[in-house]
Design goal:
Length: about 280
DNA sequence: CCATATGTTACTCG
DNA sequence: ACGAGTAACATATG
């Protein structure tokens, strides 16, 4: 569920509340949420550690502990990190509870149980293969353009590939492709130089907008995104194609179509986003 | 019962 | 090796 803007929102919000606090106790209700190491080792190594920093890489949250370890987590589809007073009762899908020294709980809540924690000394063991941060200093058009030219893969699954660019998910990929006027099944190597340039900018634009709007919160169910204070973002109100099937394209007024590409629901305008063949 | 869901990975086939 | 397609993980909702 959370893509780059949602994870960024959570990290920014949590930073002021958890940095310099100590993790005084850990409760594990669902052991599979801990990918590594074994749960008893995990508890031993995290307990009584001070939190030095919290940062984001792609869709991962990285918490630097005072010992040599990093607590890395990925929320996958429905994972949430919720900070609340430790007097609040944990609820159904709260799988991990971190008691903090400031009388708060940091709860890992995950309806579908896909989210994972990794406690490692070397962050590269988890983050090493990720592509560039699209809002970072190392996202260069020259590299992006070259990599696009080297593959015939469909552009949508390519943008979803975290080794190509890190942080895009289903929502922001559809949004970026509409913004750039590119068909989701467009073979990457057949993109014109101009389209590559427009796409490069569109990726950054839709992600920045998502962050400015504190993320996209779809639907009302339990698994939908909220930030760490349980509040919703507002980006869903400004989506151009995602979840807008049959509604008019904001550019040409024709109905937005929904198809399946690489097993993912894909929203686009068949008039504004044409396939280009060489 | 069936399809779908903001993510990722392993596997198959051509 | 590459790329497309499929299933799997686990739960909820329409």
């Amino acid at each position: 569920m959370p893509e780059l803007p949602e994870v960024e929102t959570i990290v920014r919000d949590l930073r002021s509340d958890i940095v310099n606090e100590k993790i005084t106790d850990i409760i594990i209700n669902y052991e599979k949420s801990i990918a590594t190491p074994a749960p008893n080792q995990f508890i031993k190594l995290v307990e009584n550690q001070k939190i030095l920093a919290i940062t984001r890489r792609a869709k991962y949250i990285v918490i630097d502990l005072a010992n040599p370890y990093y607590l890395i987590m990925h929320m996958r589809m429905t994972g949430k990190l919720i900070l609340q007073p430790d007097t609040t009762q944990p609820t159904k899908h709260d799988h991990i509870v971190f008691q903090l020294s400031n009388a708060n709980h940091l709860l890992f809540n995950d309806t579908r149980k896909f989210g994972r924690f990794y406690l490692v000394k070397n962050t590269a063991s988890i983050l090493g293969k990720l592509g560039p941060e699209p809002l970072g200093d190392n996202f260069y058009f020259e590299d992006f353009s070259k990599k696009l030219s080297k593959t015939s893969r469909q552009i949508k699954p390519l943008l979803l590939d975290q080794q190509f660019v890190a942080g895009l998910g289903n929502i922001y990929t559809d949004e970026a492709l509409w913004e750039a006027g590119i068909h989701p099944k467009q073979p990457a190597n057949l993109l014109s130089p101009n389209k590559k340039k427009v796409l490069f900018s569109a990726i950054k634009q839709v992600l920045r907008k998502g962050i400015d709007n504190r993320g996209t919160s779809l639907g009302n169910g339990d698994g939908n995104y909220t930030s760490s204070d349980n509040s919703r973002g507002t980006n869903q109100k400004q989506l151009t194609v995602f979840a807008r099937n049959n509604q008019p394209c904001l550019n040409c007024n024709r109905p937005i179509k929904k198809i399946v590409v690489a097993q993912r629901g894909t929203h686009y305008c068949s008039n504004c986003q044409r396939l280009r063949k060489k």
